[in-house]
Amino acid sequence: MKLASRKNHLSILVILILCTGLSLTLLPEEQSASANYSASYLGIQEYSSPPDAKEFTLKDAANKKVNLKDFRGKVIMLNFWATWCGPCRDEMSSMEKLYRQFKEKGFVILAVASGEDLNSVNKFMKQYNLTFPALIDSDYKVTDNYKVWALPTTYFINPKGQIIGKAQGGRDWDTKQANQYITSLLN
User: Fold this and answer.
1) How far apart are CA 75 and CA 66, in angstroms?
2) In angstroms, how far is CA 158 from the centroid of its own chain?
3) Does domain 42-186 have CATH number 3.40.30.10?
4) What are residue 57's DSSP bridge partners?
5) d(CA 147, CA 54)
6) Closest Cα partner for 153 from 161, 144, 182?
7) What residue segments make up the domains of the chain, in order of their start?
8) Model pLDDT for residues 109-125, shown as the tens digit of each residue
9) Which one of 15, 47, 114, 135 has the fewest beta carbons within 10 angstroms of its own beta carbon?
10) In this structure, are residues 61 and 137 in contact, taking their beta carbons and an 8 Å threshold?
11) How far apart are CA 185 and CA 50, in angstroms?
């Protein structure tokens, strides 16, 4: 009788420990539910095993060299675009609003101009009043290295330098869901 009672107590204890552990592992998912919804709403494909972002160095619109690793520790929105791309043009003003809202909080946009030259990019950035960094990938090396086959394509990189999400096609980044998504990445 004592042995059966001990087994019952042990079984109950094991179940309680398992339930406690299970609830603790579910807690972070509950906290990021709005981030998951926001990513889904925005059409962002999230990676369950984030790969490391591929390092690169490009010149910016001021003709200065910029390296991706210079932004380690920040959340990066790496956007591939071109001046001739209609959906790219359409999303730029909403990207600017997102950038201005979060740039002081550890968020940066790096807009990689695929197949473009310095003069075209500078003219475009002035025309649209864009202040986030534009990088020139005139020979498509970085674009190809990131396997971009459609413009715009946007990658999200966490502070550790890992790609955590990808969005293909243009979107409105000036939305509640975009704000929630960026906020979740910064926290």
Assistant:
1) 16
2) 7
3) yes
4) 67
5) 11
6) 144
7) 1-31, 42-186
8) 999 999 999 999 999 99
9) 15
10) no
11) 14
Nearest alpha-carbon partner for 151 in 93, 84, 98: 84
Q: In a 10 Å sphere around its CB, with 0-12 CB exposed, 13-18 middle and 19+ buried, how is residue 134 labelled?
A: buried
- 9, pLDDT greater than 50: no
What is the model's pTM? 0.82
Cα dihedral 182, 185, 186, 187 sign = positive
CA dist 183 and 38 (Å) reads 11
In tens, the pLDDT along 76-121 reads 999 999 999 999 999 999 999 999 999 999 999 999 999 999 999 9
- Give the separation between CA 89 and CA 95, rounded to whole angstroms: 10
Question: How big, in percent rounded to 5, are the helix, strand and coil portions of the chain?
Answer: 50, 20, 30
Three-state secondary-structure class, residue 21 = helix
Using the 8-state DSSP alphabet, how is residue 161 labeled? S
Q: Which of 33-37, 42-46, 47-51, 126-130 has the lowest mean pLDDT?
A: 33-37
Other C-beta atoms closer than 10 Å to the C-beta of 130 total: 19
| Whole-number Cα distances in Å, 184 to 64, 128, 163, 178 | 31, 28, 15, 10
